[in-house]
Amino acid sequence: MSNTPARIAVAYHSGYGHTARQAEAVAAGASSVSGAVADLVPLDELTDEVWDRLAAADAIIFGAPTYMGSPSAVFKAFAEASVKVWAADLGWRDKIAAGFTNSKAMSGDKLNSLVDLAVFATQHGMIWVGLDLYPGWAESTASIEDLNRLGSWLGAMAQSDADLSAEKAPPATDLRTAAALGARVATVTLRHLRGALAA
Ligand SMILES: Cc1cc2nc3c(=O)[nH]c(=O)nc-3n(C[C@H](O)[C@H](O)[C@H](O)COP(=O)(O)O)c2cc1C
Asked: Ranges for the Flavodoxin-like domain (predicted)?
């Protein structure tokens, strides 16, 4: 185990590239942890290779833009297609899971998307990990640059101004929060794998 890296898949959809930026930041955070490697897995086409990469992962971090108050339809199609993994004796049982979402409004009902992702992961018998960051930007002296400026515990949130391209949004502050989620999941996954060895 000591030479086997913890494999963190970041399974995401992005219609216009903004959530893809968030996914890249999550993956960068995960791979910044010694002993962890990240695999960015777009969900636009559900090929056998996609399912194989997810099966090989020790953790899967799910991400989608919030569309009409919930994860995008492309992500939901993936979630429904994953029933074949579920039916095969909970094929993702005991993998670590986490989630992130991005939308144009500060709230935009993003929490509903994270709840959806968490329910999805736990239906698969996965172990959900949230953020361990106190809400930022929530005191008179606080800054928009604070980690977790949107104040979510369940997963990482990002906000992208509707008139900005994916080169400019979401802002760096939300990408840092995304990276923090990736790093936390990598750390927890390494502990989980070591614990499984000891058990
Ligand atoms: C069909 C559709 C529905 C949307 N619904 C919401 C919403 O419920 N709340 C919100 O804040 N933004 C909403 N948006 C805005 C997107 O979440 C936002 O533009 C996001 O940055 C898109 O991410 P993407 O580039 O990864 O697709 C919606 C956009 C689309 C296209």
From this structure: 8-186
Single-letter amino acid, residue 61: I
pLDDT averaged over 10-residue windows placed end to end, the chain, 199 residues: 85 98 98 98 98 98 99 98 98 98 98 99 98 98 98 98 98 98 98 90
The response to whether residue 49 sits with its C-beta less than 6 Å from ligand 1 reads no
Q: How many CB atoms lie within 10 A of CB 151?
A: 15
* DSSP H stretches of helix in the chain: 18-31, 48-56, 73-81, 83-87, 110-123, 172-198
In terms of pTM, does the model score above 0.70?
yes
CA-closest residue to ligand 1 atom 6? 67
CATH code of the domain occupying 6-198:
3.40.50.360
Check pocket membership of 120 for ligand 1, CB cut-off 6 A: no
Q: Where are the domains of the chain?
A: 6-198
